[in-house]
Amino acid sequence: MQEPSFDRTLARECAKAFSESTGLGCTLSDPKGQVFADFGQSCETCTLCAAVGRGREGCIRAHVYGMTEAQRFGGKYIYFCPMGLTCFVSPILSEDGAAAKITVGPFIMVDKQDFIDCELEEAARLTGDTLQKAAQAVGTVPFVPPQKVNHLSTLLFMAVGFMNNVYQENRMLQSRRSDAIQGQITAYILTLKQQKGSGHYPFELERRLLQSLQNQNREESQKYLNELLGAILFTDGGQIDRVKARLYELWVLMSRAAIHSGADPDRTLQLNQESLQQLMGFRSLDALCLWLSDALNSLMNELFTYADSKHANLLHRCVQYIGEHYSEPITLTTVAREVYLTPSYLCRVFKREAGVTFHEYLNRVRVNKAKELLRNRDLRLTDISLMVGFADQSYFTKVFKRLTGTLPRAYREKVLDE
């Protein structure tokens, strides 16, 4: 095997220090997944795949994909392994490009029991001894709150950046900034000239940009932004003060769209203030274009960081559906299909927004409906359990007792006596 063209000793120390300081597993490997060293509860020591009878090929592909995306998005990337555990990665650079990577994980961002219910039972359809072994493997996986994951990923990026020389670091950033941005802007300006554009501000293009930002489509947002920059320069290119005014107005609209889609309002408003100060200091159009592109990426990062905790409309639709169909044999998969999400993702969102798991909320709705029906002495307990969605009366009785502290029959007698 060819020796990697990077300081392996320094990289090992970096991975070891990160693992010991955070309590997370770290793996140092080449771009194709060949491991040089690993520390802590890393993917190398994870037993979840073995517990469910899977090989590690899928994990390796996920890690390689993660590194590729990290190169695309400026040096860091957070992703999920095939079993639904979370990892993040930063590439180590050499003169020839990515020479290695440090991968952190796997870890869990949700309650472990929720992970077992959603990822293992619902998604992977595990049962019996296999489910028990998988649950035991999950028990050893570290937990990290979602709000800390992005900060830890940034910390790794900065640590790895220490090893990357300035030339390669700038090369990675420029690959996603200067060439692509300026190329698209120039191409769009040429298109406008060939079409003999009217010189009016393209409000429709602005609308598309804001819509793609709300949809969290980073690639499409960058495309529309570049075209909009081209249109602005085509219209006001000779007057830098007018360009600045246009760009700051656009930045405010972008930030509002991000907040509407889930970005943290306080943090986004802080970015607004910082951006205004930066904007006033630019003296060249190229610098302005790069600034707005970086501003867009900052907004997208805020959006990705906080979007999972801002799904009020989504939760409302789920609650509404449960309220209308609680008497039917609905499942997490059923509701996820209605809101166009994967069951595992809906499970995580529902727990964070509602404070309880999907199944716990569904049981509470059914028990509350059962309380109303128990006031009718003519209805049998078997009928009531079926009417509120429980196919098994014994299970209905068990759930009712757990949530109310009393048995259905005793509850009926109490309320009727009162």
Outline the low-pLDDT stretches.
166-176, 305-310
How is the CATH topology of the largest domain named? Beta-Lactamase
Strand adjacency order, main sheet? 2-1-5-4-3
- Given helix and strand content, the structural type is alpha+beta
Terminus-to-terminus distance: 81 Å
Q: Given the structure, what is the number of helices?
A: 20
Helix content: 55-70%
What order do the SSEs take from the amino end to the carboxyl end, as H and E? HEEHHEEEHHHHHHHHHHHHHHHHH
Oligomer state equals single chain
Number of E-type strands: 5
> Strand content of the residues, in percent?
5-15%
Structure write-up:
The chain is an alpha+beta fold and 418 residues long. It has three domains: 8-169, Beta-Lactamase, CATH 3.30.450; 177-308, no CATH class; 315-417, Orthogonal Bundle (Arc Repressor Mutant, subunit A), CATH 1.10.10. Helix content is 65%, strand content 8%. Strands 2-1-5-4-3 form a five-stranded antiparallel sheet. The chain is flat.
Describe the structure concisely for a colleague.
With 418 residues, the protein is an alpha+beta fold. It has helices at 8-22, 48-51, 57-72, 112-123, 128-138, 146-163, 166-176, 178-194, 203-214, 218-236, 240-261, 265-280, 285-306, 312-325, 332-338, 343-354, 358-373, 381-387, 393-404, 408-417; strands spanning 26-29, 35-39, 77-80, 86-94, 97-107. 65% of the residues lie in helices and 8% in strands.
Give the SSE map.
Elements: H1 8-22, E1 26-29, E2 35-39, H2 48-51, H3 57-72, E3 77-80, E4 86-94, E5 97-107, H4 112-123, H5 128-138, H6 146-163, H7 166-176, H8 178-194, H9 203-214, H10 218-236, H11 240-261, H12 265-280, H13 285-306, H14 312-325, H15 332-338, H16 343-354, H17 358-373, H18 381-387, H19 393-404, H20 408-417
Antiparallel strand pairs: 1-2, 1-5, 3-4, 4-5
